[in-house]
Amino acid sequence: MRYDPWTILHRLTRSFVRVYCVFEADLSRPRPAIPHNPDLVVRLFRGIDDLQPAIAALVPAGLTIEDVSARIRKGDLVSVGFLNGIPAGYTWTRFGDVSAKELGLTIHPRTREVIQYDSLVLKRFRRHGLQFGIAAPVLDYLQQNGYATGLAWVDLLNRPSYKNQRRWGKKVIMIIISLKLPGMEQRRNLSLGAPLHSLFTKTCGQK
Length: 207
Ligand SMILES: CC(C)(COP(=O)(O)OP(=O)(O)OC[C@H]1O[C@@H](n2cnc3c(N)ncnc32)[C@H](O)[C@@H]1OP(=O)(O)O)[C@@H](O)C(=O)NCCC(=O)NCCS
What we know:
This protein has helices at residues 5-13, 51-58, 65-73, 130-144, 159-167; strands spanning 17-26, 40-46, 77-83, 86-94, 98-100, 105-107, 113-121, 149-155, 171-179, 188-192, 200-202. It has an eight-stranded mixed beta sheet with strand order 2-3-4-7-8-1-9-10, with helices on both faces. Strands 5-6-11 form a three-stranded antiparallel beta sheet, with no helix packed on it. It is α+β, with helices and mostly antiparallel strands. It has a single domain, classed as 3-Layer(aba) Sandwich (Aminopeptidase), CATH 3.40.630.30. A hairpin with a 4-residue loop joins strand 5 and strand 6 (105-107). Helix 2 (51-58) runs antiparallel to helix 3. The structure holds coenzyme A (COA). The site of coenzyme A (COA) has 19 residues, from strand 7, helix 4 and helix 5.
């Protein structure tokens, strides 16, 4: 396995300090042109009628039936990208609160806002720009359904993900520094740029 310096730094520091950027996507802004991949077929799944097809698409990509069912039953939208019929990646959108487990916080969307979470491109398909191709139809769907903004939180040291958020022209509206230093009983989250409580509350039962 090959490790880049960012991944090494991430592994060394993540038990003590985590830094997350909260990105806001303005859905009315023009998007950067994405190179068209003629082999990529993207399907959107939402609603109970799409549950079985969503399970069939996402279990081979590593998600459990329980996770997919729970998310679809909450009304989430999932976009799945297929290459030659094989699921290559996915991205989820929630039209309500999402628990950010790694921070012990729950993020709350504002008016006409959605939360974009859990995006993954399977390892063997990475570095071909698929994340853009898989997310683009979601942005169209959201615009067509009257949504104005989308929020996502990204680990600063997750360079592929961070780079893509930036490339998409998204704005960092908050930075969260999450500390759990030796001797600290509870994780402490500090925010820069905006008060933490403007978007997050503590998840019940989380330390
Ligand atoms: C984040 C992720 C979805 C990006 O998907 P992708 O389709 O591979 O993205 P791209 O091909 O557009 O690559 C994005 C950038 O990251 C770089 N990159 C991708 N994988 C990389 C790796 N393992 N190490 C270093 N750089 C990497 C790419 O080269 C590109 O930058 P460049 O154009 O300057 O070279 C994918 O890396 C992934 O699934 N990661 C694990 C899950 C995750 O972190 N999800 C996001 C948080 S919810």
